[in-house]
Amino acid sequence: MPTTRPPLGQRDTLLKMRHVEKTFGGDIVALKDMNLTVNDGDFISLLGPSGCGKSTALRLISGLMSPTSGQIEWTGGKSKDDLGVVFQEPTLMPWARVADNVWLPFRLRGVSYNEVRDDVLEALKLVGLEKFQRAFPRELSGGMKMRVSIARALVTKPRLILMDEPFAALDEITRHKLNNDLLALREAIGCTVIFVTHSVFESVFLSDRIVVMAARPGRVIRELEVTAPYPRDEMFRTSPEYAAHCREASDALHQAIGEAA
Amino acid sequence: MSIAETDTPTEPVETVDQEELARARRERIMKIARWTLPSLVMILTLLAWHLYVTIAEVPHYILPGPLLVGQKMIEDWAILWPAMILTGRLTLLALLFAVIGGVALAVAFTQSKWAEMSFFPYAVILQVTPVVAIAPLIQIYVDNAFLAALLCAWIVAFFPILSNTTIGLKSSDHNLQDLFTIYGATRWQRLRYLAAPSALPFFLGGLKIAGGLALIGAVVAEFVIGRAGTGLGLASTLLEASYRFNFGRLYAALILISLMGVVIFALMSLISHLALYRWHESALKRES
């Protein structure tokens, strides 16, 4: 479905984090009093220095960890089919061909390949890798592996896709390309994304909301809106609007680092 | 030195430069040398052996010449061949049960921490106790000599499979484990689709070691348990030949045992290669 996404402020709530805290070993506060509302269609970046709890927040939302206190409420309840995840590493199974890697989320639900072949091929087509379905991961470049990982995350059409610094290990050129493609993808299928990054530029280019976080203890210090309309392209990267947003986010980030230091 | 000389047009650019030609030549030579050099060493050794035995007139009950060994190999083939079959069957059966037992235990250990805590120390004790020391006991308690020998060989062979497979089953990528958790994978799915393929390279590494150990275990078992009922394997044939100062036969048996070891190793390497060559780093040929 080509999206007609409602503007910010008029979207349906997907999930709410209320006073979520996570403490390790009794005294290390990884995340302190996090409140966040995620709406259908949002592209939210969690931006912050190392140790600010952004990955912890992602793990809490994914259910890999439970909060020490506070609640995470999904509208209409949460099922295991609601999530797609992309890690910093491509995290593909090296023994499985590309198509089999993308099939994995279905396979774990007990769905045979033949039943979902079209979905798998469509997901691969969306990331531009339909010709590589028979390849093994080792035959692909770093960027291509990441695309397979993205295809796997969106093949089940989940309500929310979590991305944990997915492009951090890639070179700048590949990263820009994947940023562009990710936005195109979002326009094409209208997914909701929470994207963890420590790059100001990446967060401004991609998101309509940026949550700036600080470390020790990990916490949210500001929320920004990037009002520039989508679709965004290379022109946007050089626009004064982009520069202004980058400056705003950068100032917030410096405040975050300053507060922590 | 004139300008004209330095200005002479360079040779047409070839697609293959000197360096690459040199490398191709080196590779060709290496390829041939890989077979010819060891063969040459073999021939020279045999020749030296033969000359030494002939010139120094070494009696055949001290050191038989290569010709005598070859002659014995042919003359005694009717004894050696069935012996080899027997030892081979013992070795392969021990290896088969080692694979079944080792993998089953490894799965049990990784599925249940309690099982691992309870039994792993005993698996280690079984491994570190020399099989030569256990074999006489086994001979006493197990009536069937073939079964007793099989048990000996199994004890030696199963540990590397158990230990490697256990490590392998635990070595799957942490992010993939998280992904399986997020997608609500069952225990069986986790084992089948994640742990087992991750363990495969480790298991195959263990298999290579276990193949050699199974043969060693079989030989030791034949030595210790003897001909009492195992029938005549290669090792007991060797032992008997030594009692009779039939050194030609002894050497023939020894060569066949080595040959079996080589064949088993080659077989395990082949299995490993076939299972891994498409995806695993260990089986990749690096380009350039």
From TrEMBL, chain A:
Family statement drawn from the similarity comment of this UniProt entry: Belongs to the ABC transporter superfamily.
Organism: Pseudooceanicola atlanticus
PANTHER family: ALIPHATIC SULFONATES IMPORT ATP-BINDING PROTEIN SSUB 2, TAURINE IMPORT ATP-BINDING PROTEIN-RELATED
UniProt GO MF annotations: ATP binding; ATP hydrolysis activity
Protein name as it appears in the record: Nitrate ABC transporter ATPase
Pfam family, any one: ABC_tran
Keywords, sorted A to Z: ATP-binding, Nucleotide-binding, Transport
Domain ABC transporter: 15-240
SMART domains documented for this protein: AAA (SM00382)
Keyword Manganese annotated: no
TrEMBL record, chain B:
Family per record: Belongs to the binding-protein-dependent transport system permease family.
InterPro entries: MetI-like, MetI-like_sf
Membrane topology of this protein: Multi-pass membrane protein
Pfam family, one: BPD_transp_1
GO MF assignments: ATP binding
Source organism of this protein record: Pseudooceanicola atlanticus
Name of the protein in question: ABC transporter ATP-binding protein
Keyword field contains Glycoprotein: no
Annotated keywords: ATP-binding, Cell membrane, Membrane, Nucleotide-binding, Transmembrane, Transmembrane helix, Transport
Positions of the ABC transmembrane type-1 domain: 84-268
Cellular component GO terms, alphabetical: plasma membrane
Membrane-spanning parts: 35-58, 78-107, 119-138, 144-162, 199-225, 250-276
Biological process (GO), any one: transmembrane transport
UniProt superkingdom: Bacteria
Compartments it resides in: Cell membrane
